[in-house]
Design a protein that fits this description.
There is one protein chain. The protein has a four-stranded antiparallel beta sheet, with helices on both faces. Helix 2 packs antiparallel against helix 4. Helices cover 32% and strands 15% of the residues. By secondary structure, the chain is α+β, with helices and mostly antiparallel strands. It starts with a helix and ends in a 29-residue tail after the last strand. The chain is globular. The chain contains five helices and four strands. It binds flavin mononucleotide. Flavin mononucleotide binds next to strand 3.
Length: 169
Amino acid sequence: MDAFDCIATKLDVREFAAARQVPQEIKDKVLEAARLTGTGLNTQHWRFVVVQSRSGLATLARDSTSGAWVSGADFAVIVLTNPKYRFHLIDAGRVVQDMQLAAWNFGVASCVFTGVEEAGLRADFGIPSDLNISIIVGFGYPARQTKGRKKRIELKNLVYFEKYGSSTP
Ligand SMILES: Cc1cc2nc3c(=O)[nH]c(=O)nc-3n(C[C@H](O)[C@H](O)[C@H](O)COP(=O)(O)O)c2cc1C
Protein backbone atom coordinates (compact mmCIF):
# COMPACT_ATOMS: atom_id res chain seq x y z
CA MET A 1 0.00 0.00 0.00
CA ASP A 2 1.12 3.54 -0.77
CA ALA A 3 2.31 5.30 2.42
CA PHE A 4 -0.22 8.13 2.07
CA ASP A 5 -3.11 5.72 1.45
CA CYS A 6 -2.05 3.74 4.48
CA ILE A 7 -2.25 6.87 6.66
CA ALA A 8 -5.47 8.07 5.03
CA THR A 9 -7.38 4.79 5.43
CA LYS A 10 -6.12 3.60 8.83
CA LEU A 11 -8.69 3.85 11.57
CA ASP A 12 -8.41 2.87 15.20
CA VAL A 13 -10.41 -0.34 15.40
CA ARG A 14 -11.58 -1.92 18.66
CA GLU A 15 -13.50 -4.94 17.37
CA PHE A 16 -11.57 -7.76 15.84
CA ALA A 17 -12.41 -10.90 13.87
CA ALA A 18 -12.01 -13.63 16.48
CA ALA A 19 -11.74 -16.42 13.94
CA ARG A 20 -8.90 -14.93 11.90
CA GLN A 21 -5.39 -15.11 13.34
CA VAL A 22 -2.63 -12.70 12.40
CA PRO A 23 0.18 -14.72 10.78
CA GLN A 24 3.58 -14.72 12.48
CA GLU A 25 5.23 -13.01 9.45
CA ILE A 26 2.97 -9.99 9.92
CA LYS A 27 3.66 -9.87 13.67
CA ASP A 28 7.35 -9.97 12.83
CA LYS A 29 6.96 -7.06 10.40
CA VAL A 30 5.13 -5.02 13.03
CA LEU A 31 7.94 -5.59 15.54
CA GLU A 32 10.56 -4.89 12.89
CA ALA A 33 8.81 -1.59 12.13
CA ALA A 34 9.12 -0.78 15.83
CA ARG A 35 12.81 -1.64 15.86
CA LEU A 36 13.47 0.52 12.80
CA THR A 37 11.74 3.60 14.16
CA GLY A 38 14.02 6.42 15.21
CA THR A 39 14.39 7.58 18.82
CA GLY A 40 15.71 10.84 20.18
CA LEU A 41 19.53 10.72 20.10
CA ASN A 42 19.13 7.15 18.78
CA THR A 43 18.90 6.05 22.41
CA GLN A 44 16.54 3.13 21.64
CA HIS A 45 15.50 3.24 25.26
CA TRP A 46 12.20 1.53 24.57
CA ARG A 47 11.24 -2.04 25.29
CA PHE A 48 8.21 -3.95 24.02
CA VAL A 49 6.19 -6.65 25.72
CA VAL A 50 4.22 -8.74 23.22
CA VAL A 51 1.07 -10.27 24.67
CA GLN A 52 -0.53 -12.94 22.48
CA SER A 53 -2.03 -15.61 24.71
CA ARG A 54 -5.78 -15.40 25.38
CA SER A 55 -5.09 -15.35 29.12
CA GLY A 56 -2.45 -12.61 28.75
CA LEU A 57 -4.82 -10.47 26.69
CA ALA A 58 -7.58 -10.98 29.26
CA THR A 59 -5.19 -9.90 32.02
CA LEU A 60 -4.18 -6.85 29.98
CA ALA A 61 -7.85 -5.92 29.57
CA ARG A 62 -8.40 -6.30 33.32
CA ASP A 63 -5.40 -4.05 34.03
CA SER A 64 -6.73 -1.35 31.70
CA THR A 65 -9.11 1.50 32.47
CA SER A 66 -9.74 2.53 28.86
CA GLY A 67 -8.88 -0.48 26.72
CA ALA A 68 -11.08 -3.39 27.75
CA TRP A 69 -11.51 -4.11 24.03
CA VAL A 70 -7.93 -5.49 24.00
CA SER A 71 -9.29 -8.81 25.27
CA GLY A 72 -10.56 -9.39 21.71
CA ALA A 73 -7.30 -8.51 19.99
CA ASP A 74 -5.11 -11.10 18.31
CA PHE A 75 -2.04 -9.68 20.00
CA ALA A 76 -0.95 -6.55 21.82
CA VAL A 77 2.26 -4.69 22.46
CA ILE A 78 2.98 -2.83 25.68
CA VAL A 79 5.29 0.06 24.81
CA LEU A 80 7.69 0.94 27.61
CA THR A 81 9.91 4.01 27.46
CA ASN A 82 12.54 5.47 29.72
CA PRO A 83 11.28 8.68 31.36
CA LYS A 84 14.82 9.93 31.95
CA TYR A 85 14.68 11.16 28.34
CA ARG A 86 12.49 14.25 28.04
CA PHE A 87 11.37 13.12 24.57
CA HIS A 88 10.39 9.60 25.61
CA LEU A 89 6.67 10.09 24.97
CA ILE A 90 7.34 11.48 21.49
CA ASP A 91 9.28 8.30 20.80
CA ALA A 92 6.37 6.23 22.11
CA GLY A 93 3.93 8.03 19.80
CA ARG A 94 6.15 7.56 16.78
CA VAL A 95 6.77 3.89 17.35
CA VAL A 96 3.17 3.02 18.01
CA GLN A 97 2.08 4.79 14.83
CA ASP A 98 4.76 3.01 12.80
CA MET A 99 3.59 -0.34 14.17
CA GLN A 100 -0.03 0.51 13.39
CA LEU A 101 0.78 1.58 9.83
CA ALA A 102 2.98 -1.47 9.22
CA ALA A 103 0.08 -3.67 10.35
CA TRP A 104 -2.52 -1.81 8.31
CA ASN A 105 -0.36 -2.25 5.23
CA PHE A 106 -1.28 -5.95 5.59
CA GLY A 107 -4.93 -5.27 6.46
CA VAL A 108 -4.39 -5.75 10.20
CA ALA A 109 -6.20 -3.11 12.22
CA SER A 110 -5.35 -1.80 15.67
CA CYS A 111 -6.13 0.65 18.43
CA VAL A 112 -4.17 2.10 21.32
CA PHE A 113 -4.93 2.85 24.93
CA THR A 114 -3.17 4.64 27.73
CA GLY A 115 -5.43 4.13 30.74
CA VAL A 116 -3.99 1.45 33.01
CA GLU A 117 -4.06 0.27 36.60
CA GLU A 118 -0.34 0.70 36.82
CA ALA A 119 0.53 -1.39 39.86
CA GLY A 120 -1.44 -4.38 38.60
CA LEU A 121 -0.05 -4.16 35.10
CA ARG A 122 3.53 -3.90 36.37
CA ALA A 123 3.05 -6.92 38.59
CA ASP A 124 1.26 -9.02 35.98
CA PHE A 125 3.79 -8.40 33.21
CA GLY A 126 6.98 -8.02 35.25
CA ILE A 127 7.57 -4.43 34.17
CA PRO A 128 10.54 -2.78 35.91
CA SER A 129 9.98 0.45 37.82
CA ASP A 130 12.45 2.49 35.73
CA LEU A 131 10.39 2.09 32.55
CA ASN A 132 7.23 4.07 31.87
CA ILE A 133 4.14 2.27 30.60
CA SER A 134 3.59 4.73 27.76
CA ILE A 135 0.98 3.22 25.46
CA ILE A 136 -0.50 -0.15 24.62
CA VAL A 137 -1.57 -1.21 21.14
CA GLY A 138 -3.84 -4.11 20.27
CA PHE A 139 -3.92 -5.67 16.79
CA GLY A 140 -6.22 -7.94 14.83
CA TYR A 141 -8.15 -8.24 11.62
CA PRO A 142 -11.11 -5.89 11.78
CA ALA A 143 -14.49 -7.42 12.62
CA ARG A 144 -16.09 -5.41 9.83
CA GLN A 145 -15.31 -3.09 6.93
CA THR A 146 -13.87 0.16 8.32
CA LYS A 147 -13.91 2.37 5.24
CA GLY A 148 -15.09 5.99 5.30
CA ARG A 149 -15.64 6.88 8.92
CA LYS A 150 -12.66 9.11 9.61
CA LYS A 151 -13.79 12.33 11.29
CA ARG A 152 -11.28 15.13 11.20
CA ILE A 153 -11.23 18.93 11.40
CA GLU A 154 -10.70 20.57 8.01
CA LEU A 155 -7.16 21.54 7.08
CA LYS A 156 -8.10 25.22 6.80
CA ASN A 157 -8.95 25.20 10.50
CA LEU A 158 -5.66 23.62 11.47
CA VAL A 159 -2.96 25.20 9.35
CA TYR A 160 -1.51 28.70 9.36
CA PHE A 161 1.17 30.13 7.12
CA GLU A 162 4.24 31.96 8.39
CA LYS A 163 2.43 33.17 11.52
CA TYR A 164 -0.13 31.68 13.88
CA GLY A 165 -3.57 32.88 12.76
CA SER A 166 -2.64 33.66 9.16
CA SER A 167 -4.76 31.50 6.87
CA THR A 168 -3.42 32.72 3.52
CA PRO A 169 -0.33 31.10 2.07
C1 LIG B 1 -2.45 9.27 22.52
C2 LIG B 1 -3.70 8.46 22.26
C3 LIG B 1 -4.36 7.88 23.32
C4 LIG B 1 -5.49 7.10 23.09
N1 LIG B 1 -6.08 6.47 24.14
C5 LIG B 1 -7.11 5.65 23.91
C6 LIG B 1 -7.67 4.90 24.97
O1 LIG B 1 -7.21 4.99 26.12
N2 LIG B 1 -8.67 4.04 24.68
C7 LIG B 1 -9.17 3.89 23.41
O2 LIG B 1 -10.08 3.08 23.22
N3 LIG B 1 -8.69 4.63 22.38
C8 LIG B 1 -7.67 5.50 22.59
N4 LIG B 1 -7.12 6.20 21.55
C9 LIG B 1 -7.70 6.10 20.21
C10 LIG B 1 -8.40 7.40 19.78
O3 LIG B 1 -9.67 7.46 20.39
C11 LIG B 1 -8.47 7.43 18.26
O4 LIG B 1 -7.16 7.53 17.73
C12 LIG B 1 -9.30 8.59 17.72
O5 LIG B 1 -10.62 8.50 18.16
C13 LIG B 1 -9.28 8.62 16.21
O6 LIG B 1 -9.73 7.38 15.73
P1 LIG B 1 -9.84 7.12 14.15
O7 LIG B 1 -8.45 7.24 13.56
O8 LIG B 1 -10.40 5.72 14.03
O9 LIG B 1 -10.75 8.16 13.57
C14 LIG B 1 -6.00 6.98 21.77
C15 LIG B 1 -5.33 7.59 20.71
C16 LIG B 1 -4.19 8.31 20.94
C17 LIG B 1 -3.47 8.93 19.76
